[in-house]
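Mods, move this if it's the wrong board.
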Amino acid sequence: MSESFFSTEWRPKNPRIRRFLAKYLRWMIWLGYLFALFATIGLILAFVVRQEVTVATTPDEPGTLEAASMVYTVPALTCLHEARVANGAVVKRGQTIAYIYTGSDLAPVASAYRQLRERTPQSPLVAELRQRLLARPPESVRSTADGVILWSTASQAGLIEPKGELFRIQNYGRIIAKGRLRGNTIADAAVGQTAMISAFDFNRDTKDLLRGTATEVGQELSFGSRRVLDGSVERLLNEHLVGEQFAVRNDRTFTFDRVALAEVEVQLKGQSSSNTDGLIQMDPVRDFQLPGTVTDGIHRAKVQFRSLPAKAQSALTDLLNKRLVGSQLEVPTTADTSSLRGSYSVEQVQQAMVIVQAEAQAPPSRFGPQPPGINASPLDRYFDVEVVLPNPPTWLVSAIRANDALRRATRTKIEVVTGTQPYAMQLLRR
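Not the wrong board. Structure tokens:
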């Protein structure tokens, strides 16, 4: 007769518990085995299953969307005498688009003539300046590429300094996203990686936000936009809320100053239509993404270090010796008797150490073994990236072009896939 594993004194005294264990203990043991088996499988899968890891722009520093452009700069002091095409017009390569005066002798004269002609066209000085300009005809400027022309702000204001921008030709067939990426795997960011563009913001400065739902039979469409109202609600509320009082709970009574943000929520009812008359382009939904490819970039870092190369350390010591040895130092002190009194004559610099914070950069090549260098600690780390969007949709091109005409930036979120990691490593990071 075999003995029981449990001693007599270990057995429960309650007969109900004893009956329960006699009936279900075997199942409880098997459940324990299954739990341990599933836990082991989950642990193994956590190290086997890999997920993509990304680096991205931050909400405080969003990326921007812009067309590929060719900038025309002037070699000398320049004044735009006449623009043959309007801002935002389509131009062809080789087309004459402007006449300019260059040089420190004629550019200021042309600028003065242009301003006086607009303000006081009947002034005798206008005719005098015109005669001086007729002595040498202006230079013609031709378009350097096909595209849409955007005149610089300086060209509209007056004189353009040497190496300043006169205009740029925008190629809206090639849309580029630029931004500053941050993340735990920033060292792995490189050219050729896949990027995702999302969270499009076409009018971040406006305080009006329209959002809501449009319903049809059995269907619902959510939408939102900062472009539709374009500040009209802000202006209306600023006008109608003047002098209004706000009773803030457990605080003072406040008087209305200005609108900081107006979120308008609406519910629309209608039906599907193919009519494009009066079409209003809404912003894409928050999770809408467009793929792209990293074509260029540069790794940047702000680092701190204290170990200098021998040559730099020697030069630093020599500099300090020249500046300090033989001089008299006087430091304001308290009444503490342990402090030195009067001036202090410097005879020698015994030791010199320096803590340096520096800006550094690295090429966007694949991350590999590190060559020897000065040991440094990173204070800030990011990757300035350029992403090209293949075949950008028409609505996006139209929105960027409209913002460019208003000299307004189109902001977005840029996310670059730098590789994969086991799921367990991502859990440990969190």
